[in-house]
TrEMBL record:
Record keyword Cytoplasm present: no
Protein name (Swiss-Prot/TrEMBL): Cytochrome c553
Gene3D superfamilies, per database record: Cytochrome c-like domain
Signal peptide: 1-28
């Protein structure tokens, strides 16, 4: 049987953990991306995502999507999912694993700003 002191201590620990997790999610939600800052962070992306009709062959053959014009929040969310292992692709997981939440938001904003009307851009 758990003593009253142990029960109180466990309750306090659970509350502290809950507050810590809530703080982390608020911080992640507060991150504002910058397309200008993102321009200097997409150099790894262009090796695959800037090549029209590019097909990767590792770990299997598939068509690599062009991500210019994609929604910024979607790109940041996808990168976060790769980093956490929720999306499965070894190369993307390795790249996303090296990115901070700010990097992901900046990259998302950079690609969201790219449209068909954007002047030719080798980083698109």
């Amino acid at each position: 049987m758990i003593s009253m002191k142990k029960h109180l201590l466990l309750t306090q620990l659970a509350l502290c953990a809950g507050f810590a997790l809530a703080s982390l999610s608020v911080q992640a939600a507060d991150v504002q991306g910058s397309a200008k800052a993102g321009q200097g962070k997409v150099w790894l992306c262009v090796g695959c995502h800037a090549i029209p009709d590019y097909r990767a062959d590792y770990p299997f053959v598939y068509k690599v999507p062009m991500i210019g014009g994609q929604n910024a929040a979607y790109i940041a969310s996808a990168l976060s999912a790769y980093k956490k292992g929720e999306r499965k692709h070894p190369t993307m997981r390795a790249i996303a694993g090296s990115l901070s939440d700010q990097d992901m938001a900046d990259i998302g904003e950079y690609y969201a700003a790219q449209t068909a009307a954007t002047p030719p851009n080798p980083l698109k």
